[in-house]
């Protein structure tokens, strides 16, 4: 075979198929032994090519000028690197190349990465021993230098070298064997390299092999347009990871950001996180699936699913049912919030009976659980009573054809003004001071309570409200400014008359002895009831036994009257503000009482709903009917007193208590 220029060096490929030829003309050509001809000229320059060698099965390496060049005969990729001297000899030995020439001898990796430099003088030739542990070089001075090749045994350096050579499998194998580099870190570096060359699949494989599942999920998210089933792959990655916390969080974040409700539900099903699955169905108003989870997975849900069911009911507008489930879940704050909002909304719609009832339901629930919140149970009861009273007042102002007994309406308006409006103790949305004072003035005029009429109009002037009934004021001015004693509340403990509008008292109680006025909650007149308590050392159960014991001699009211007189003496001896204290009775007095005349309010919780919890304490409250001929009933649910006949009629008519609406048919009406 003829060639056009002198051949300076040649080298066979590893498989013996190709012979690389280095020409003095600057060409590098390939001779194919199979075809028995020169098949290609792979390089051409203006300087002689002094040496040629194969660095791998398909890559030729050759030297010209001060460059070392590489050519892949399969990929047909050419690259060149400046080595600082003209190479005369290239030797391949195992995993590295030995390059020598004018300027020294250096060892490089098969992809031209520097490993070490052997000599700095001119080297005409070099050769490695077959086992690769010695390197012999011939110098320009005529010397032969033998170098021992020893390995540093530095795995970190070796791993870094493998990384530079992109020999990732060997780097991972050495990292796993020596533990010098975290596999996840290595996988991340390989993935970053793969992303640089835009090989997404290789990057994903690198992350998977290093168990960096979070990065795989992020890779799928950012390149989801290249994967038709990327959501399914994410679910599979979660499964492979064993539902690791950080992997699960990453998958959830991807589905949430993408609004992928379906796959997010599948994820929760796979991880058996039924609480979050239930919350997901609730947020998307998938009531059918939510109810299914509540029924089938009740034992696995927080609080038995009561909180979730409450949220569902709220979103469906079923607030009263939601209230019960909030209580079951122990979320008294949410239960309180929902009932306060219901009550306020009802008051704004002028549905004052409903507003009262919602507050009562809340107070009852809190009382049963003995919980003290921002508004205590007693205040909630009072606010409920205010709405109950104002419903009468409002109807009398807006419904002219609804008939009310004047005295009942007078008592309701006076009680409401004293408790709610005048002292501002129980702020209630929707209650109009104009309506309250106008109703009170009108009914007071009808019943000849002229002094009260004047007080009402004075109060209206204080609030800069024009008098609604000028004729009423004119008529009352023509009469004496005193109130008809028949309409004034009388204290059955001390016998004192009290004004309809109280000036000094801060509650519904006698201004002389401090005894609370116990009213019928239908017509609101004062009932002949006096509160007493057993003396210290007598427990409630013993007191009850003494009262109900029929063998004891019942001595009417004689002994009890003596106790009243004694209690009044104690009141008059108290200096300053009147502080109410129940009448204290001993065992003899208790035994003398007729059980029919005694009413008992049990201490239902530690936070009793007594009007003054500090003075009444945690014991039962006892009341004596001083006029047995007047029948009295006590609702066992809300602890309000009524005239017995009126109460029974209302219960039969409405199937419940007029105030709390509880069904109490067949229950004891509070007698001991």
From TrEMBL:
It comes from the Eukaryota. Residues 155-426 form the Intraflagellar transport protein 122 homolog TPR domain. Keywords: Repeat, WD repeat. InterPro entries: Apc4-like_WD40_dom (IPR024977), Ift122/121 (IPR039857), TPR_IFT122 (IPR057411), WD40/YVTN_repeat-like_dom_sf (IPR015943), WD40_repeat_dom_sf (IPR036322), Zn_ribbon_IFT122 (IPR056838). Residues 3-56 form the Anaphase-promoting complex subunit 4-like WD40 domain. Residues 486-530 form the IFT122 zinc ribbon domain. This is Intraflagellar transport protein 122 homolog.
